[in-house]
Write a structure and sequence with these properties.
Layout: H1 2-13, H2 18-21, H3 26-56, H4 83-87, H5 102-121, H6 125-147, H7 152-168, H8 173-202, H9 211-224, H10 226-251, H11 259-283, H12 287-298
């Protein structure tokens, strides 16, 4: 009985990978999920380094991990993702200064998202590609939140993923090109059209939609294809609109980072966007149905 309930829950959570998973025992997941989570939080620890150091122009590999307050080198025992922060009660072992809870949040978030990737895409090559894409989205989202800027070298990693993705998915080159243009092109045009107005109003050379957001959606379209990109953009814009309305009401501020919400939309779209688009298309009147109705009207 418990196995039937488990498979039913898995079919809902992982529609794309269910055919592969339905032959697996629940005990496999009891082993695999913690492993995937541990792998995810370890990668998440490195993501923290990228998020903090890239905007500061610091090397990602030359200097060892250190306290951002006193500069003391972090001990090896204190480098265990998530758990070290808990053991230290969120304080530096050298100076006692509080360590931001965002460090374990990023690590745990990356681990949880990896588990979702694992369940949706199955233990496949595409899962590993999507895990890397997930981590890129985490970096881009948090970096844009902090600085309202995106690093082009991080965004370029999405294009690198397109190459292996082409060989392990059914997406055609045309679907990828349309995916790049269907959101990227409107974003670029909106940015260009709003640029003169923003310059006149603020005196700054800013755009309604910044180039970083446009590049993010264009590169992601090459990876995911147009069927995933349309829901991704819709969800991201919806999240941004809700947050923007709340921010405007509370502080009167209308300027905020758009990237984090686009990253949320892209993550959801990467997992379920294609399925949502295909479902929506299936609800539309089909050509043969339209022709039949037309004939009934004309020749009644």
């Amino acid at each position: 009985m418990y196995q039937m309930l488990f498979l039913a829950a898995l079919k809902i959570a992982a529609p794309q990978g269910f055919d592969d998973w339905k032959y697996m025992e629940p005990s496999f997941f009891l082993f695999a999920i913690p492993v995937v989570f541990l792998y995810g939080i370890c990668i998440g620890s490195f993501l923290n380094v990228v998020i903090i150091r890239l905007p500061l122009g610091e090397s990602l590999i030359k200097r060892s991990s250190h306290c951002m307050t006193c500069g003391a080198k972090i001990r090896v025992i204190d480098l265990i993702p998530v758990f070290s922060w808990l053991f230290l009660k969120g304080k530096c072992h050298s100076c006692g200064e509080k360590i931001s809870p965002r460090y374990p949040i990023v690590e745990a978030l990356n681990g949880i998202l990896y588990i979702a990737d694992f369940l949706v895409f199955g233990l496949t090559a595409n899962m590993f590609i999507m895990c890397i894409f997930t981590s890129i989205l985490v970096v881009v989202g948090f970096m844009d939140w902090d600085t309202q800027e995106m690093d082009l070298s991080v965004l370029a990693m999405i294009v690198v993923l397109v190459i292996p993705s082409y060989f392990v998915t059914d997406l055609t080159i045309l679907e990828r090109l349309i995916g790049a243009a269907v959101i990227g092109l409107p974003f670029f045009l909106i940015g260009e059209l709003t640029r003169p107005y923003a310059r006149k109003k603020t005196g700054e050379d800013v755009r309604g939609i910044e180039l970083g957001d446009t590049i993010l959606m264009t590169f992601s379209g090459l990876l995911l294809g147009w069927k995933a990109m349309v829901p991704s953009a819709f969800i991201g814009i919806l999240f941004a609109a809700v947050f923007g309305a709340i921010l405007k009401k509370k502080s009167g501020e209308s300027k905020f980072a758009f990237g984090p919400y686009l990253c949320m939309g892209l993550y959801i779209g990467a997992m379920f966007g294609t399925m949502l688009t295909e479902w929506y298309i299936s609800t539309l009147p089909q050509p043969e149905t339209i022709e039949y109705v037309s004939n009934c009207i004309l020749f009644r």
